[in-house]
Amino acid sequence: MEIIASVSKLIIPAFMLCVVAYGVYRKVPVFDSFVSGAKDGFGIIMRIFPYILAIFFAIKCFQSSGAFGVIKDALAPVLSFLGVPAEVLSVAVIKPLSGSASLGAFTEVLKATGPDSLASRISAVIMGSAETTFYVLAVYLGAVSIKKTKYLVAVCLIADAIGMTIAVLIVKFLL
Fold first, then answer.
1. Which of these, 93, 67, 89, lies nearest to 78 by C-alpha position?
2. Which one of 17, 52, 152, 153 has the lowest number of neighbouring Cβ atoms within 10 Å?
């Protein structure tokens, strides 16, 4: 275990050293290229910042408005009928909005039901297989300045729903 810990600490510095060495070998002005990339990175950040700000604002409004509680209360009987613990819904609804908020919801599921419960296992698979759709859309579309998304959000949310349904089915099948 100690060897793995030591190697993992050295991987990123070794990679950076290899990149610089390769640049020097290819006679690329490494520092100038780095500075140029940093300048470009700052421009990209300034282009996508409004999109990220908008998505964070939407997440906070969703959480503060009580909409999550309404959705959870409405879907709890359906989930109960299907044999899916209601705790899973908190992770499933929040995951497309925010990775850190869904991690918090997942932690609460673990604390409430224990790590080996059905709810924790399903939530873990959702955490590992679903995407933070709105954040990714804000970053990717903002980076390339795409304004017309038409069906993109709907398709992404349908894909999330299908992925989460498959996560539930696989966990229930494997238990």
1. 89
2. 17
pLDDT band at 120 (very low <50, low <70, confident <90, very high): very high
Which pLDDT tens digit goes with each residue over 25-62? 999 999 999 888 888 888 878 877 887 787 778 777 87
Question: What tens digit of pLDDT does each residue of 146-174 get?
Answer: 777 788 888 888 988 898 889 889 998 88
Q: Residue range 59-75: average pLDDT?
A: 81
Q: Which amino acid is at 48?
A: I
Mean per-residue pLDDT of the chain: 85
Q: Which long-range contacts (CB under 8 A, 24 or more apart) does 12-15 make?
A: none
Rounded CA gap, 118 and 168, in Å? 9
State the Cα–Cα distance between residues 3 and 172, nearest whole angstrom.
Answer: 37
d(CA 158, CA 135): 16
Distance CA 124, CA 128 (A): 6
One-letter amino acid identity for 59?
I
Residue 9 tokens, joined: 């600490």
Which residue ranges make up each domain of the chain? Answer: 46-174
- Torsion angle, CA of 88/137/47/35, rounded to 10 degrees? 80
Long-range contacts, stretch 8-17, CB < 8 angstroms, 24+ apart: none
